[in-house]
Amino acid sequence: MTDCCDHTEKTNRPTAGPSSDPAHAPPAAAAVPVPTGAQRFRIPAMDCAAEESDIRRALTDVPGIRSLNFQLVARTLTIDATDEALAAAVAAIAQAGYKMQPANAPAPSGDTHGGHDHDHDHTHDHGDAEGGMPAGLPRLVAALALAGLAEAVSFFAPAGLLWTLVGMAVALVAIYLAGLDVYKKGLTALLKRRLNINALMTVAVTGAFLIGQWPEAAMVMALYSIAELIEAMAVDRARNAIKGLMALAPEEADMQSADGSWTTVALAAVPLGATVRVRPGGRIPLDGTITAGSSAVNQASVTGESLPVDKTPGDSVFGGTISETGELELKVTAAANDSTLARIIHAVEQAQGTRAPTQTFIDRFAAVYTPTVFVLALAVAVLTPLLLDWTWLQALYKALVLLVIACPCALVVSTPVTIVSGLATAARRGILIKGGTYLEEARSLKAVALDKTGTITQGKPSLVDWQVWNGADAADVRRIAASLAGRSDHPVSKAIAQGLADTNQALGTVDGFAALAGQGVQGRLAEKSYVLGNHRMIEARGQCSPELEAVLAGHEQQGRTLTLLAGDNGVLGVFAVADTIKESAREAVAELKALGVTPVMLTGDNITTAKAVAALAGIIDVRGNLMPEEKLTAIGELQIRYGATGMIGDGINDAPALAKADIGFAMGGAGTDIAIETADVVIMNDNLRRIAETVRLSRRTHAVLWQNIALALGIKAVFLVLAVFGNATMWMAVFADMGASLLVVANGLRLLRSSKVPPASMT
């Protein structure tokens, strides 16, 4: 393996575009679209950087290729090229020895992993159709048994040519069963002067056989192939963590026909605008808007929320979620291949094609490491007989052991597995991270800027306090104010009407109702005139007093909007409306502080209101009255002052700041399309605590990555020394190489064990 895998970079923030999902499903899936003229192929044998390098080299001389996008864990390659170049590329890949098929082709029988053929490079099929015993395992077990028999012949059979020939024949059969594919690929690589694991194993096993170590050659090939099978199955687990989300959506839906009857049809046959029915306990098949019925909907598969959410007519629902308590009818708003769930999966798959900083480092290191060890092996074979008085056979054997150790697969495979495991874990928690770069770099955040409205607060006003005045009767004040407010469409009036709603008290009849622009409303109830207006309106009526002004000032200092009910004889009641903070805001701010991340509020609202809301959330650094361009400037100032800075927002005015920040976070439920598309991370359920979870997951992922590097390099270093100066054998070298690979893959998969990241800070 003489070069590194350099996936086409896809980490640039996407341009804004429309979304068809009324629930603001993240259009991040379109953030890395397959370009016009591009085709996506599944390459079953491509699950290591060695195979990617082979394919990339095979396409080097094909003109007309615009871009290549490799996804090792998904075993897919997207080729953007002219029609002629595409045909030439397919032929070149086939000539290099790799089977491929369109990514949307039907899954072959025996496919256990979400529609992917698993005719693996080294070990053929990974599994049977039932997902039980891997299909290639019996053949490899037979190879291992024959290798053991060859070892037994070598140790216990009488000396003589006949038994030697018998043992060699048994070893050859074992090598054939376990390593035919390895030899095919290895010889192809050697003929093209390439160093990869196939070439190294081909040379090592052949050399061992020729110097009389045929039992060990057979055992090495059998152990290597079995380890490769196990490793490939472990890699599949990371991929299936993402693909498994797709199984959450049912395959069929009950759709209403034109005559009003209900028929069961495949999801792909359900058109936009159709009405579908979901029974209690059933999975919602597609994204839609409820037209009839109500239910508690479990949205954990999409938003990561642990508790069901009550849904009524007019509310949006996601495909793949569960209607737990009631029957629903809904109007379909997104096709099956464009559902929120499908787009999340596609976005995460595209994200795994981006290259995290650690992966870039590993690939560069691998490009130097492999040829260096190969040169060292040559030096051992040629120089040690002259310098250390070793026999030529001893020197050659030690050199072959070094070749087995030389492959850096443990290093290169652990990085994508760890990154994809982290992306999948985040997706389970309702955190859509658009690339491995952002997953890894979130750990470095030193400050996070938060928009106020819709991010820290609910984004809509609500009645937070009210009181009677001048000794008025509370029930009368409540009834009159609710009656007047209920006739108005103004958001503040709606908040008052909703806050005063009382099912045990009937509203009064309002005569002569009129809305007074910029002031409030007026009307008559029981032949008496009343107004429900703002502070300015009451002052103009001459009905303010020093005592009332003091009460109003106290509310205004808390950032509340005040509305007063007054009659001809004076003020009867005071109503305070405010945009309340989210329940998660205070906890989220505390968690960020515990992680060493400084929260800062940036808002276009007035500074008095901003400070009042910030105090409730626990934020000290507050900046108000900001225009969009001023938010952009503020992000630059925070980057200078603190270092890496994130931005959390949900509106169009937040988009410039989201793009400027080191990592932009968008609220996926309340956020606008442009904010969601511009951001690097989308929080699906608008829970601010997910920001701290992202930072913790990033730190944990980074820790696992460097644990893997230490494991792989440490094991390699020990066996390199043993191979040259100790008594390391070839099968020990196989255990060192493949054992290290399995260890780092298993370590990377630890990120999948729990969908909830522990609250403890991880460095």
Q: Would you give an account of this structure?
A:
The protein has 763 residues and is α+β, with helices and mostly antiparallel strands. Among the domains are: 250-338, Calcium-transporting ATPase, cytoplasmic transduction domain A (Distorted Sandwich), CATH 2.70.150.10; 462-578, Calcium-transporting ATPase, cytoplasmic domain N (3-Layer(aba) Sandwich), CATH 3.40.1110. It is 47% helix and 16% strand. The strands form 5 sheets. It has a 7-stranded mixed β-sheet, sandwiched between helices. A 6-stranded antiparallel β-sheet has the order 6-5-7-13-8-11, with no helix packed on it. A 6-stranded antiparallel β-sheet has the order 16-21-20-19-18-17. The chain starts with 37 loop residues before the first strand and ends in a 14-residue tail after the last helix. Mean pLDDT is 77; it is low at 1-36, 106-132 and 755-763.
